[in-house]
Each structure stands twice: as structure tokens, then as C-alpha cells.
Amino acid sequence: MDVHPPHGSIHTWRDFFVHLSIITLGLLIALGLEGVVEWAHNRHLLHRADANLRSELELNRVTLMNDEKLLDASEKQLQAYLGLLSAFKAEHHTTEANGLSWEWNGLSSAAWDTARNTGAAALMDYAAAQKYADIYTQQSLVDTQASAYVRDVYRSVAPLQGGRRLSSLKTAEVESMVTNVQQTMADLKFLRDLSDSLSRYYERNVSSQTNQ
């Protein structure tokens, strides 16, 4: 910010104070304009961040609803798979096991990452910032647990890789498959619990938007 004094020489104290007043007034006007520009910029940044967060969370809410339906199907498949393995262990019949399938759509955090990186999150009031932080922290827990669940699915069917058949497995390998499927089911249940909690966060967020 450059401030230039008026041209002309100063001959009296009156001229000095006039020049000083002009410089002071110019500085105040410049600072005021700069403050208005910064306020407008911050207001726009905050408004855009809030709109992006609302949109992202609504999309994530719909995605999670679909993911929870996919978990229902996966749970039934795992129960059937465990029953097949248990029957094979008990009777050693030749029924073969197909591979397990999974489907999970991750949740986005791009709007929240952008809000923090641009400083928009720091401009929010405490209640709003805490609300978004809680939601996205829960999202991170869900995504982390989803990754653990998917790894369990692959671990459960690892002995059948390379075209091997259930009837060709050793007893220890079948036991390992049973243990891994049980662990997968436990992790799926934990993922469901975390997802249910996140769903409640989403619903409270929708309710707060409706009441505003």
C-alpha cells in the first residue's frame, strides 16, 4: 500500500497539520478499503465452502445408504460361505466354493480438505467447524474400516487363488479360511456400526440445514 504526501512545500505549522491530516485520512481510507475487500473475500470464501460442504455431504449420505445395502448382501454371502466351509470340514463332500465378492463406494472429503487448505474452515464459527470436523472424522473411520473389510475378503479366499479347488486344500488351509471368513464377518459388523453412526451424523446435518 503506497501513500504519497501532497506536493508542495510546507511553510507554516498550519500547512504541516493540513498535510498530516491529508496523509492520515488517506491512510484510513486505504485501510478501510482494504478491510472491506478482505471482508468481502472472506465472506465469499466461506459461502462457497459451506455450499460445497453441504453438497458433498448430501452426496456422501446417498452413497452411504447404498453401501449399507451392499453390506446386507455381503453379509448373507459370507454366512452362506461359512456354512459351506463348515459342512466341508464336517463331511468332506466335494461341493466347491466360489470366490467372495464385495462392493463398496468410498466417501469424498474433497470439500473439507479444500476448506481447510484455503482457510475457510478457520473463518467458520466454532459450532459449524466442530460439526464438519466430527462428520469428516467419522467418515475417515468408516473408510479405514472399509479398507480392512475388503482386505479380509481377499484374505478369506487366498487359499483358492491360482485355480485351486476346495477339495484339494489341506485341513489347515480350510481352517484358515473359516477363521478369516469369521474375521471378515466381524469386521463387516464393525463397519456397519460405524456406518450407522455416520448416517446419524448426516441426518443431524440435514436437520440443521432445514431449521436454518
SSE topology string: HHHHH
Regarding quaternary structure, what we see is single chain
Most strands sheet: none
The averaged pLDDT comes out at 84
Number of strands: 0
Class by alpha and beta content: mainly alpha
Tally of individual helices: 5
- Principal-axes geometry comes out as rod-shaped
Q: Give the helix proportion (percent range).
A: over 70%
How big is the Rg?
Answer: 31 Å
Which band does the percent of strand residues land in?
Answer: under 5%
Low-pLDDT runs of 5+ residues are none
Q: What is the distance, rounded to the nearest whole angstrom, between the alpha carbons of the first and last residues?
A: 40 Å
Question: Can you describe this structure?
Answer:
- The chain has 212 residues and is mainly alpha-helical.
- Helix content is 77%, strand content 0%.
- It is built from five helices and no strands.
- The protein has helices at 13-91, 110-117, 120-123, 126-156, 171-211.
- α4 (126-156) runs antiparallel to α5 (171-211).
